[in-house]
């Protein structure tokens, strides 16, 4: 998995493909964060988020009931969907995540991904991605609505007017599409998908131990210093 992705001077880069409406992406991000908290070289780790459309057929900003969508798109009876969501919610609670699927508003997420790219340029991509997850899964907000997105950007310290201008002009639409194309080249068909140092992949919300092993292997090959799991500093976003 060579290429522009996974490269940064003196950094171990983790490229993450995810979608705002993907519950396992929210979970996977929390698990990676825990692993980084135990990794002694986390100050030299850079995590970069890339766009993926879990449901590319959703193009509009008019919310669709999530249960109805799952029934129509996946053939899940409401009872089955509710049971599945409860299992995810319970696992999420163990990680400190608050899933409220009954409030989730399914919409197209391209615009939310554009906001993530805008935030990356301001050094706040991780905070933005986290805020988008919470907005979607806990607060039931419409993450395709420009005004909502502008408010979320302001909450993490970004310039609201600048964020709205970037969304209105679709300044980062090409960046979103580039991420999607790169995912296709890598053969990524589901998210979350983590690529360490452009070489090692972890798919799904894997246990912390799996992330730690991959961190250690990637570090040893990329930077050259042996890494031992233990207390470490926060990751450099």
Present the secondary structure layout.
Layout: E1 12-18, H1 23-37, E2 45-51, E3 64-65, H2 66-74, H3 78-94, E4 105-106, H4 110-121, H5 125-137, H6 146-155, H7 160-169, H8 173-186, E5 193-196, E6 200-203, H9 208-222
Helix pairs in contact: 1-9, 4-5, 6-7
Task: Write out key terms for the chains shown.
two-stranded antiparallel sheet, 4-stranded mixed β-sheet, disordered C terminus, 237 residues
Structure commentary:
With 237 residues, the protein is an alpha+beta fold. It is 49% helix and 11% strand. The chain is built from nine helices and six strands; from the N terminus they run E-H-E-E-H-H-E-H-H-H-H-H-E-E-H. It has helices at residues 23-37, 66-74, 78-94, 110-121, 125-137, 146-155, 160-169, 173-186, 208-222, and strands at 12-18, 45-51, 64-65, 105-106, 193-196, 200-203. Strand 5 and strand 6 (200-203) form a beta hairpin. Helix 4 (110-121) runs antiparallel to helix 5 (125-137).
């Amino acid at each position: 998995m060579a290429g522009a992705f996974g490269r940064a001077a003196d950094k171990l880069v983790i490229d993450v493909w995810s979608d705002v409406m993907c519950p396992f992406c929210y979970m996977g991000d929390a698990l990676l964060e825990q692993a980084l908290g135990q990794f002694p070289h986390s100050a030299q780790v850079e995590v970069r988020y890339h766009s993926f459309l879990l449901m590319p057929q959703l193009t509009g900003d008019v919310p669709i009931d999530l249960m109805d969508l799952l029934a129509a798109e996946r053939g899940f009876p409401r009872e089955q969907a509710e049971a599945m969501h409860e299992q995810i919610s319970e696992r999420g609670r163990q990680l400190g995540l608050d899933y409220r699927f009954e409030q989730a508003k399914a919409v197209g997420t391209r615009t939310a991904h554009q906001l993530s790219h805008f935030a990356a340029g301001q050094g706040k991509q991780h905070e933005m991605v986290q805020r988008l997850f919470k907005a979607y899964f806990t607060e039931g907000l419409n993450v395709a609505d420009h005004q909502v997105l502008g408010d979320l950007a302001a909450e993490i310290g970004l310039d609201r007017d600048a964020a709205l201008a970037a969304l209105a002009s679709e300044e980062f639409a090409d960046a979103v599409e580039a991420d999607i194309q790169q995912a296709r080249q890598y053969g990524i068909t589901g998210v979350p998908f983590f690529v360490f140092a452009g070489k090692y992949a972890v798919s799904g919300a894997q246990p912390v131990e799996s992330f730690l092993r991959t961190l250690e292997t990637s570090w040893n090959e990329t930077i050259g210093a042996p890494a031992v799991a233990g207390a470490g500093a926060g990751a450099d976003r």
